[in-house]
Design a protein that fits this description.
The structure is a single chain. By secondary structure, the chain is α/β, with parallel strands linked by helices. The protein has one domain: Alpha-Beta Barrel (TIM Barrel). The chain has 15 helices and 13 strands. It has helices at 16-19, 32-37, 55-69, 80-83, 93-108, 124-128, 136-152, 165-173, 185-210, 233-254, 261-266, 280-284, 349-362, 390-408, 451-462; strands at 9-13, 73-77, 112-118, 158-163, 216-220, 224-227, 290-294, 298-303, 331-333, 368-372, 413-419, 438-440, 447-449. A hairpin with a 6-residue loop joins strand 12 (438-440) and strand 13 (447-449). Helix 14 (390-408) runs parallel beside helix 15. The radius of gyration is 21 Å and the shape is globular. The relative contact order is 0.14. Bound molecules: 5-hydroxymethyl-3,4-dihydroxypiperidine. The site of 5-hydroxymethyl-3,4-dihydroxypiperidine has 8 residues, from loops.
Length: 478
């Protein structure tokens, strides 16, 4: 049976825009996701994060649920425009007080706060000045990071600068399926660099405020890319191209190796990379105390054979404009064998193991945490009100098992955060896709711990992977 050491950190993750609601309360100003979700046609059913899971008002209830699950850590993000309306200038005391209250209550409950400073919700005013395609946004982010370190520094276990900059840059600025919805390939590459720079500048600012002992991190959604035909050199080259844009363009500079030359060469017809200024690569390469790894599924590619239109549908909602800047006409995405989650993503726990082993091999000495892993399914509420989400429980079981195997094979993985604590606003898919181990009834805002949540609680309590069938209620909080 797979088991984990007692200091392995078990948690769950959320993000501000996906759960908080209270979009116009407490001095919060609009972020790009407010603008985007309120633009007709952008999200499924026109859903917005205006109310979401109403966590802004109901966080004490959510904290009780975290205690009931026995969580040891809680990963959440700060809404930049709630604490610093407009993204510049003085902090908003009401916004800061919200997070201060949450963090203090978490600490009092023995749950370690793991903060993400940016989970995609750029203040709209900064987008109006060019957003992540504008270098100035990186400096504004560093200033915001400094101020938050000053406010919350003593209570935070890990400071994560960015969540999944791949999504911010390519989905936001190339394919346009995320806010701000731009389809400008050159701007997407500039955004990649300015996000990397923002991370580095913020890391410097946080360490200046809190000292070298502060735990610093960034979370990447690294891609596991399989060649359609492993014996084909052309398919292997397609893997190289996508790997460059998905993984190496972040890992390279963040871990001190600079930008990969092949990515620069591949994208030369899109951008000359003049946005990289002298000294930037040194600024970006700040020591990482832990690398946050998000893993959900794998990707399969082959070389485009020139017949018809290349299939750019990569199973992540990217079928219109492609996020894969500079690979046009070179690479085709191939439908993966199932099974699939409700997102249409293939379920492949071996990808988790492969990814962790690759990072262990190529970047030894960098500790890792799984900062997101989980699955959306179309849950059914039983007559007794329970949610018997065996498919999600199985998904979690198999992926956590893969983490355990990677640890046994030498990968330094120190924690796991299930995505997500609560059902929430799943970006372009609105409320139609549910990832929570806790169900949210969006009519009443009632919370119900799903079977997967009960199963996860047993895992945390024992440090051993329970059988999927063995879901028994955890004792209620006294
Ligand atoms: O809901 C998202 C989260 O915000 C970032 N990572 C992937 C999740 C599932 O799509």
């Amino acid at each position: 049976m797979t088991s984990f050491p007692s200091d392995f950190l078990w948690g769950s993750a959320t993000a501000a825009y996906q759960i908080e609601g209270a979009a116009t309360e407490g001095g919060r100003t609009p972020s790009i996701w407010d603008t985007y979700s309120h633009t007709p046609g952008r999200t499924l059913n026109g859903d917005t994060g205006d109310v979401a899971a109403d966590h802004y008002h109901r966080w004490p209830t959510d904290l009780e649920i975290m205690k009931e699950l026995g969580l040891q850590a809680y990963r959440f993000s700060i809404s930049w425009s709630r604490v610093q309306p407009g993204g510049r200038g003085p902090l908003n005391p009401e916004g800061v007080a919200f997070y201060r209250g949450l963090v203090e209550a978490l600490v009092a409950a023995g749950i370690r706060p793991v903060v993400t400073l940016y989970h995609w919700d750029l203040p709209q005013e900064l987008e109006d000045e060019g957003g992540w395609a504008n270098r100035e946004t990186a400096y504004a982010f560093a200033e915001y990071a400094r101020l938050m370190a000053r406010e919350l520094g003593d209570a935070i276990t890990v400071w994560t600068t960015l969540n999944e900059p791949w999504c911010s840059a390519y989905l936001g600025y190339a394919s346009g399926v995320h806010a701000p919805g731009r389809t400008e390939p050159a701007a997407a590459l500039a955004a990649v660099h300015h996000l990397n720079l923002a991370h580095g500048l913020a890391a410097i600012a946080i360490r200046e405020e809190l000292g070298e002992g502060t735990q610093l991190s960034i979370t990447l959604n690294l891609h596991v890319i399989r060649p359609d035909d492993p014996s084909s050199a052309a398919d292997q080259d397609a893997v190289r191209r996508i790997d460059g844009l998905a993984n190496r363009v972040f890992l390279g500079p963040l871990l001190g190796h600079g930008y990969p030359q092949d990515v620069i060469d591949d994208a030369a017809h899109v951008s000359d990379f003049a946005f990289v200024q002298d000294g930037d690569t040194e600024l970006i390469a700040q020591r990482l105390d832990v690398l946050g790894v998000n893993y959900y599924s794998t990707t399969r590619v082959r070389a485009f054979d020139g017949e018809g239109e290349p299939d750019q549908a990569d199973g992540h909602g990217n079928s219109a404009a492609t996020p894969w800047v500079g690979t046009e006409g070179q690479v085709e995405f191939v439908q993966q064998p199932g099974p699939y989650t409700a997102m249409g993503w293939n379920i492949d726990p071996s990808g988790m193991h492969d990814l962790l082993m690759r990072l262990h091999r190529e970047h030894p000495g960098v500790p890792m945490m799984i900062t997101e892993n989980g699955a959306a399914f179309h849950d059914v509420v039983s007559e007794d009100g329970a949610v018997h989400d065996r498919d999600r429980t199985q998904y979690l079981h198999d992926h956590i098992d893969a983490v355990g195997r990677a640890r046994e094979d030498g990968a330094d993985v120190r924690g796991y955060f299930v995505w997500s604590l609560l059902d929430n606003f799943e970006w372009g898919y609105g409320y139609d896709r549910r990832f929570g181990v806790v169900r949210v009834d969006y009519d009443t805002q009632e919370r119900t711990i799903k079977d997967s949540g009960r199963w996860y609680a047993r895992l945390i309590a024992s440090g051993q992977l329970p059988d999927v069938g063995a879901v028994t209620p955890v004792p209620a909080v006294p």
